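Good morning,

Both structures are done.
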Amino acid sequence: MASARPEETELLRRLYANASAAPAQFGALLEHLATLTRAEAAALRGGPAERWERAGPRGGADEPLDQPEVARWLDSLRAERVYDGEDLRAVGALLPDQRLRALRVRLGPEGDSAWLAILRRGEDFRAIDAVTLGALAPHLPQAMSTARRLTAERRAAARHQTIAARLGAGWIEVDPTGRVSDHDAAAARLLAGAGLRLERGQRLAGADAALDARLAEALRAPPRAVLLRATPPLGLVLTRDGAAITGYLQAPAAAPVAPARVQQMWGLTRAEARLALALTRGHSLSEAAAALGLTVETARSYSRAIFARTGWRGQPDLIRATLTSALWLGPPQDAP
């Protein structure tokens, strides 16, 4: 079996490097492919974005790719073969001086495809250019599959981080001595607010000797819970996973809740929603009335309407239902 040319090896290296990048983008691959084949433009469709990604001028040499006739032709190609597109010239989809080489590959059993094309004006492509394009055929399916999978996993991870941040949650990983090996951004923010240092490779240390002692004791025998700060409350639960210890942090939900979201969730008026939020924060009825500029009688009337609509029996039910709902997961810019 013939070994790959050095330029093809570099092409494959860029293909897999681009597929695993965050976010997956294939610009480096396409630029190198255009250089190797002396193309004015190189383009790939079928990656995570499911659109043409280009190296070279849009609306220049690669303009034919956006034509419906070319799109139908690309879709009809047999997989893993390089085509020259000369039959497109007969239907006017290519100008006399436009040159095209295209490759289609199947990405999976569902019939999904990816397309790779090189284009130029003037002199036609060389035979070796088609060979260079075809050398990517066995590798594109794996690279595209990797790019799609990593893109989906990163989106899921970003959503999980967003949810955790809005709920005021974070995590750290430490060894039995309290030395930090990993953590998320939310944990750094939460611990800084409690006066704790959080640096990788450094020991998790309390703001005072008493907290330091409680942390050291908890690390000796997880699972243990430690109150890091009383007001506003910040708790840490330590659990053991083999040699590592994971700490989970929880503070009051970071994302404020807009009255509009409370209206939508429970079917309240805006005034009732504002009162419900004030009561959820632990205010008494008179305190909530003063904070909202209401008389106590008006606030009492709103509260009766809230309980009648929702079936809650009083403020404890209201607090329980609100704090365990999805209200806290909305974006903070929805806040009043």
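Second structure follows.
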Amino acid sequence: MEHYLDNAATTRVCPEAAQAALTAMTECYGNPSSTHTLGREAKKLVDSARKQIAGALGCQSGELVFTSCGSESDNWALLSGAQAMRRRGGHIISSLAEHDAVRRSLDELEARGFQVTRLKPGPSGAVEPEAVEAALREDTVLVSLMLVNNETGAVTDIPAVSKLLRRAGSGALLHTDAVQAFAKLPFTVKSLGADMVSLSGHKIHAPKGIGALYVRGGLRLRPLILGGGQEEGRRAGTEAVPQIAAFGAACAAAMADLEGNIRRMSALRQSAVDQLSAALPELRVLGGGAPHILSLSLPGWRSEVLMNFLEAREVYVSKSSACKKGGRSHVLEAMGLDARTIDGAIRVSLSRYTAQADIDALCQGLIEAARTLRHN
């Protein structure tokens, strides 16, 4: 029996999203920019999905722009956001624990002459608002911090960061990568106080290839992709109607019982911690905070060995972010963890489909792995 526990990398497509995509591909297959009946039907699907996601975010539909993925949303927010503020200054604040989509964008901005302060995360893996306040300068024009870390599940207090920016009278834009937080934690753009919020569909049971960027009303970002006038002239290219419709359907399904999903995932995460801590005293839980991500380590053993041991039992976890493709975790390094701990780390990530049987299989597999490795 398969036990999929790598939902931070991607999720299986839920039935609601699959059906929405199928309908868009086989019935409402027109170009949403066409003015004939099939085009108008496709546009209705796009508009409906935008409304569903905007409702979950607590924003206006016109403030949500569809992209191809979360990485594109991050790239666009940072590159165009910094450029829009260039006349006010050239300093950017971010962290050492960001997703590569943000890290590479920061590298590009540095090449363009911006100065970037990369903050070190605290012991939990989150970035403390006080660190942002200490780094803030008069010429700071952009702050970009992940809401939920994709490797540790650490939750950074974005509302507190927003409040300190206002308190300091800073005009800096605030961007947050909420890819791992959306439909996993309760928040709205108003509660966050962010100017830009990046989302991705395949983390919430929609297909791969669809994301979105919330852009606060009144904020004008230069498009990254030029061409036609789609997305109100903000992103060119024919809209991916099947993915967009599926994203909306997946969002509606996730938000229908968000609090219940959070309770169930939190309980399952705690069950894993309790079982493993009782059987494996050497186990270390690395940071955390979100209900669906558990980063843990068995120091002294290689994570690849543990993963292979689990995979042989059809339990699927990961080493760190899937985007790292096997590289050492920069997030755990930024937290100051020792090499033995980092090299023995694995990430377990849940979804609303995760069951107690999946957690039990994980725990049994890791306990068996530890016993086997001790005797070898």
